[in-house]
Design a protein that fits this description.
Layout (H helix, E strand, L loop, with lengths): L1 E7 L2 H8 L6 E6 L3 H8 L6 E5 L15 H8 L4 E6 L9 H6 L2 E4 L4 H24 L17 H13 L6 E4 L6 H10 L8 E5 L5 H9 E2 L11 E2 L1 H4 L4 E5 L6 H13 L1 E2 L8 E2 L3 E6 L3 H6 L5 H7 L2 E4 L10 H16 L5 E2 L1 H9 L5 H15 L4 E2 L6 H4 L9 H22 L4 H8 L3 H10 L4
Parallel strand pairs: 1-2, 1-3, 3-4, 4-5, 6-13, 6-14, 7-10, 10-13, 15-16
Antiparallel strand pairs: 8-9, 11-12
């Protein structure tokens, strides 16, 4: 891996860096002054920059060396800036810059510690590169269609998915809107032997009734006014794979009858066709409605219900599995920082506490939108309470969650934050405490309480 370095410090640091036993290929640019650094930024993009914050002698245009910090972040938001500073020079730096810095060294700098920090920065660059390779696949699911979460409910669902993935049984997924029913359906498909075949989604509640039949079954040329050429339906497009019928409870009784016939006979017929097409797809359906109540009101066919409900999976609302919130929030943060090209590293404990006590009427979908909004608005490496929507940030005294759910979520986030920071500092607890802004003794206490040893 090639890494671009920008050094704005004493010439000796350039010499020392070249002698460091670092395995990766380094392209090092030494800038003797502010103008040279700015000039290099016009054609180069640093991955890592080392700045001596004390060297602030003015140049011809009146700009001090430390001003290059803001230029670098503006030009290369993902650049990791390492600051070297004296106790007196620390007063000259803005708090925002201190917060944005990847690491800070008080002079004189220990070469071993500098080498360790550089290697840590390079490891982070490699991890970021790997994440980018897989970023198009980031959704609600993890690798290989895995479902994100470790609450008891999600663990049970994961086991169920693994058990049924390689069967052909129909699956009915129930739960409130926004809980991630499509995620579970996709996980079943991705863990099945037919994962190389299509996964086709049909949202029955979003398609007008008069168009839904032709969308599902397709039509022949001339089947109706405007049908100038034949079109295959979603069932045909899913051949060999999986069709996911979302909001099945919104379908009319007449269309329900045709779907039942297709399932029973394992064949479909395009509108206006004179021949039958064999049906070779797995059917997964989902609804946020109570189908049993609809059956009693003659709004849903009982025979279709039993055909679809061979395997039933209930996906609980986010408020009932709040311990999954930190993992989901971290996942969405990673997704949107990649998309927006931002280097936001974490969500503050205060912000996570606010998220943990919110009731989440929109469930996981609402959380995703909240993290997306926060990522866009955040201009620091950490999302804080001020980046959250007012209706959530002002909700601390208006929640109805049980205290143990809140504690589970906060403890889970503490584990994630401490574990990740420990990895970044090569398990140096003193540095970890400093980066987290914690008292060293309190960090040891947390590690013991959270069983991280």
């Amino acid at each position: 891996m090639e890494t671009n370095f920008l050094i704005l410090a004493d010439k000796q640091l350039h010499t020392d860096l070249l002698s460091l036993p670092i395995k990766d290929s380094l392209h090092i640019y030494y800038a003797p002054d502010h103008e040279a650094a700015v000039s290099w930024l016009n054609y180069g993009s640093p991955d890592i920059a080392i700045l001596d914050a004390d060297r602030t002698e003015c140049t011809a245009n009146g700009a001090g060396r430390i001003k290059i910090f803001d230029k670098i972040i503006e030009h290369s938001p993902h650049c990791m800036v390492i600051l070297m500073i004296s106790a007196q020079g620390r007063k000259k730096i803005h708090e925002v810059q201190l917060f944005q810095a990847f690491d800070i060294f008080e002079k004189p700098v220990n070469p071993g510690e500098l080498r360790s920090t550089i290697n840590r920065a390079i490891r982070k660059l490699k991890l970021r590169s790997e994440i980018k390779k897989h970023s198009p696949n980031l959704g609600h699911t993890g690798p290989n269609g895995s479902i994100i979460g470790q609450s008891r409910a999600i663990q049970h669902i994961k086991r169920t998915v693994q058990s049924i993935a390689d069967t052909s049984a129909s699956v009915l997924i129930t739960g409130e809107s926004g809980t991630g029913k499509e995620v579970v359906a996709r996980a079943i498909h991705e863990q099945s032997a037919n994962k190389s075949h299509p996964f086709v989604i049909v949202n029955a509640g979003a398609i007008p009734e008069n168009l839904l039949e032709s969308e599902l079954f397709g039509y022949e040329r001339g089947a109706f006014t405007g049908a100038v050429k034949a079109k295959p339906g979603k069932f045909e497009l899913a051949e060999g794979g999986t069709i996911f019928l979302d909001e099945i409870g919104s379908m009319s009784p007449s269309l329900q009858c045709k779907i039942l016939r297709a399932i029973e006979n394992r064949e479909i017929e395009r509108l206006g066709a004179i021949h039958i097409t064999p049906l070779n797809v797995r059917i997964i359906t989902a609804t946020n409605k109570d189908l049993c109540s609809l059956i009693k009101r003659n709004q849903f066919r009982e025979d279709l219900y039993y055909r679809l409900n061979v395997i039933k999976i209930y996906l609980p609302p986010l408020r009932d599995r709040i311990a999954d919130l930190p993992l989901l929030a971290e996942h969405f943060l990673r997704k949107f920082t990649l998309r927006e090209h931002k280097d936001i590293r974490t969500i503050s404990l205060a912000a996570m506490e606010v998220l943990a006590v919110y009731s989440w009427p929109g469930n996981v979908r609402e959380l995703e939108h909240v993290i997306e909004r926060a990522t866009i608005l955040c201009n620091t490496p950490q999302i804080d309470v001020e980046n959250l929507p007012p209706e959530i940030a002002g909700n601390l005294v208006c929640h109805n969650l049980e205290s143990h759910r809140f504690t589970d979520a906060v403890n889970e986030f503490k584990k994630l934050l401490i574990t990740r920071t420990m990895e970044e500092t090569d398990h140096n607890k003193t540095k970890t405490a400093r980066k987290l802004g914690l008292n060293r003794t309190y960090l040891f206490k947390l590690i013991k309480e959270l069983e991280l040893d």
